[in-house]
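Take a specimen:
=====
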Amino acid sequence: MVGGERRTGGGAAEVTAGLRAGYEAAAPAWADGPGPLYARLAEVLVAAAPVPLPGAIVLDLGAGTGAAGWAALAAGARQVVAADLSLGMLRHARDLGAPAPGSTAPCAPALDSPAPGAGAAWDPVAADAVALPFRDHSFDLVLAAFCLNHLDSLAAGLAEARRVGAAIAASTFAPGWDHPAKGAVDEVLGSFGYQPPAWYACLSPGSRAGDPEMLAEHAAAAGFTDVRVRTTAVRTGLVTPAELASWRLGLAQVAPFLRSLDPADRTAVRRAAEHAVAGLAGISPMVVSMVMLTGQSHPAQPLIRFPP
């Protein structure tokens, strides 16, 4: 999550607090829920980066549990700074940072690791996307994986990314993308008394971040050049009822509700959700329609380089 002022429904502080609480609640089970989906999407985004990754210094904006940052390290980045407002997500990024079998990414350090460039490969920082605590031109690349839709001001978020980074690669769900498992699981949740939290409804203005034309327009206005926006279909590998139900049940807007239930009811919700997904006719592996934005900034001054 990345913060940023919101003016739609509720105060900015209230919405940001609700958003943070949702992700804090989701963090413990993220790796077994939405984690695999976002890890696959992050790999595709990093592969589309407009600058070479080997040796790069990368900002993982709205890092969450670090999927995009770990993908960048696996692709050869020298250092990743993971910025997020949720300390819980960053802690789980640290705890779960050991690479998967076959990955070359190093393990994440503690949350009190040194400042960028001080020798650690992965540095977590609590930060707001529209007020980043970094000097101009600090990064070769800003990765913004599924976080721009959290911002009320897309323009402000992109301008701040342009200030600190020489290039950007951002992603969001394509407008109108859906999967049958979503409706099936949401119906089960409703039968147990679930209602989406107020902060989640306030995210709807951010859906314009998925509009390719608007993304390109705002990126150009922020000062990015060589702007490209494209939509791609990503095979996520999620196919079983358990995987699809876990994806939906682990999201930040659902996690606090599940935590409020006693263990027996949580188990009942999960079983009912898996049963509902299994009963869908012709259910197929999840393929996500993902919008990707890339661009470069060509700063007038060289990038700030930190000693190894």
